[in-house]
Amino acid sequence: MRPSRASGGSSVALIAALLGFTVITIDVTAVNIALPDIRDSLHGGMAGLQWVVDAYTLMFAALMLSAGALADRAGARRAYAWGVGLFTAASLACALAPGIGALIAARVAQGGAAAIVMPASLALIRQAYDGPRRRARAIALWTVGGSVAVAVGPVLGGVLTETAGWRAVFLLNLPVGALILALLARTAVSPRRPAPLDLVGQVTAVLALAGLAFAVIEGGHLGWTSAPVLAAFAVAFGAGFAFHAAEKRHRAPMVPLELLRKRPVTVALAVGFAVNAGFYGVTFLLGLYYQQLRGMSGVEAGLMFVPLAVLITVTNLMSPRVAERFGRRPVIVVGQAVLALAMFALLPLGAETPLWLVLLLLVPTGLGGAFAVPALTAQLMDSVPGERAGTASGLLNSLRQTGGAMSVALFGALLAGGGSGFSLAGMHLGLLVTGLLLCVTTALAAWLLPRG
Description:
The protein is built from 18 helices and no strands. By secondary structure, it is an all-alpha fold.
């Protein structure tokens, strides 16, 4: 029996959405493996490498707050096409970058494009699948695609860097982007709806996050009391204050302040920040540890991430079932506690630690965050009114990305140890700080999240 035209269109939309989510996820993990080669090629130093990662993540985090409204105003298909087109063009700019500054600027554009792609891809699936059951299956496939991308990204990044150079990591996005745009031409036109944009809030959010990231990254290199670092802290504080004032006065703020007065919401956001700080901090750390301290090739370093990614994928699939049986609060608390344990377990890591032991010590890293995040997301969705679900989801994703960006900034500043080398003492201090942060959010979740 031939599939109907409608079902065929749904499948095309799902493939297009899945490819977009996969490519923006692979880009993060693949670039982590390419960082040492980027440093050698463009002479960026540790601060430059941090900005290569954080320029993408910060724009992703900040623009995520209003990207959903943009998708509503333009229509999911059109917004998705804009995001994919910009991401593809920015990837070409990354591949052609003549210096570290040009690469960082192109990464800013990539991150902004990724922020549009993420919510628009989900909206595209929502449009293509009317039935709740079919839609749930489609979203599950979309989510698994992201997990697979986490596994494939480091290996792909290592292979491309070793065989064709780090620029090939970005060039790979070009044919994928072209394929997505071709698929979108075969999907139905998306409806539009009025959705006010909070431009003042968006600009002040970008300034606050960028100022904070600059202060943390450059503080480890220029000194925490240097004039540029103090000025960046002042910009972050001032922009944060202006953001709060803008959200308070806007008739349709992108971050409704009344949401932040709900304890389950604020706890969920804090937990999301801490979990991503732990996971992305360790990912950034290990990419450099394997290659700079252990002398591994890019391919070998990428392969070291495969067991971790497989563990994350399996745990992600198990987490909702465990939460149904024991409740979300215990799953969120235990997941964080395990991730905190992972930070402390990695403290003895050194240049001579057996590789089998390194992989063993990473087991709680794969289990903890992957166990907590699905239950955390479901808990947040149940804590807000239905009409605020999209806003709350965007806010959670934004805080999670911010946590990742801040941990990369902190780890990089500590790893450099005031120079251009790899400081084991700095690595251990970063792990200790992140572990303590997770202990705090674990206690908050245990105390403040609703029982049952």
